[in-house]
Design brief:
Length: 64
Amino acid sequence: MKVNPIQFMRQVRQEVKKVTWPTKKEVMQVSTMVILIVAVAAAFFFVVDIVLAWVVRLVLGMGV
């Protein structure tokens, strides 16, 4: 079934009207949570990297 471009655009507008857009407060809350989770994950992997580097140096005889 072919739809002409004008009809397609009308259908797109109808569908966009059905979308429930988040409020500014919801966007801020979700963004804050994402930033916090990324920071925690980065700190975790930083610590794991340091520990693994120390273990490798220890095993290879170059460590402390």
